[in-house]
Amino acid sequence: MTRTLIAILRGIRPEEAVQTAEALVEAGITVIEVPLNSPDPFKSIAVMVEAMGSRAVIGAGTVLRREQVAELALVGGKIAVSPNCNAEVIRASRDLGLQSWPGVMTPTEAFAALDAGATGLKIFPAELVGPAGLKAMRAVLPREVPVYAVGGAGPDSFAEWRAAGADGFGLGSALYKPGQTVQDTATKAAEIVAAYDAAFAS
Question: Known catalytic residues?
Fold first, then answer.
């Protein structure tokens, strides 16, 4: 089963990246992003890409510039996630064969992202938009466009967000914080996957 969850490993270090990725995939989370404001992020991405192969989609978060997209592609990353809607970053990502997930908060930003070629939309920060805001946006967005709630959506609110039209979620501090053990990450991942499965069972 492929779950529409993105693990956000902000602050992870290369020496813990592979074990953490293994724990996430074992739990059932197979899309992983390393925000570029983490220590040596491209190294972490590279070692996870090599270790995980086709078992996971690895990429970067907080992608703000075209040159970062190019470096991401060089180390084998497959997904570029941004906190903002930057048409140049979106186009560069798609030109290099990467998925592009820009952050948007308004219909104007959402349609600008889609016009630039975005793979999907990241509602960010989701806590400011809220399920009611997403529901209103969903009324005008193309149904086939995947929309993930990131920043304020968690296991206790998956069902509410799904009812509002969210297709998936990005999980940051609810899943991983710098310095936590791999076992802690595995435990949190299992809890998140269980909550996701319950919310999407119907």
Answer: 33, 122
Give pLDDT, residue 202: 67
Number of domains, the chain: 1
Domain harbouring 49, CATH code:
3.20.20.70
Reported pTM: 0.97
Are residues 4 and 169 in contact, defined by beta-carbon separation less than 8 angstroms? yes
Dump pLDDT digits (tens) for 55-68.
999 999 999 999 99
User: What's the pLDDT score for residue 132?
Assistant: 98
- Give the model's pLDDT for residue 2: 86
CA distance linking residue 102 with residue 63, whole number of Å: 9
Three-state DSSP at 59 gives strand
Alpha helices in the chain (DSSP H): 14-27, 41-52, 66-74, 87-95, 107-116, 126-138, 158-164, 182-199
Q: Which residues of 124-163 are buried (b: 16+ CB within 10 A; e: fewer)?
A: bebeebbbeebeebbeebeeebebbbbbbbbbebbbbbbe
Per residue in 112-167, pLDDT (tens digit) is 999 999 999 999 999 999 999 999 999 999 999 999 999 999 999 999 999 999 99
What average pLDDT does range 98-103 have in this prediction? 98
What residue numbers bound the domain in which 164 lies?
Answer: 5-199
CA distance 129 to 116: 22
